[in-house]
Amino acid sequence: MIASLSKSETRQAAEARAKDFRRLLLLVLVVEGMLGLLAMVCPTWVLGDVNETSRLGGALLLSFAIMHVPALLQAELYRLAIVLGVIARILIALTALFLTAGFNFFALIEMVFAVTLYVGFRTMVIAVLQARP
Description:
transmembrane; plasmid; transmembrane helix; single chain; 6 helices; membrane
């Protein structure tokens, strides 16, 4: 026998998924903000080389973290901003991977962040859409 879900159960599940996604987004934004600040202040610790592009990359990370703050409050309403943020993280990771020589830890971190945000966002959107009549 299949147990049917009530509207309140699906709504509670959607709220739980949205809360989980907000926690994940908060973690990613804090780590990216700290990496951005470190890249601007001490670029040798983050990227290994000291030039203006490393400081520019830090400023870019910090600006992405600041622009995604409204999505922390209501992630359901800022879907487009979150999707564009995931696409931008993938582009940053690919740029960092192909424009630098050798293994780039920064590109790996950005790709992992992009994939985890995509998976978390996808589960949240599915739960929110299933909770609506």
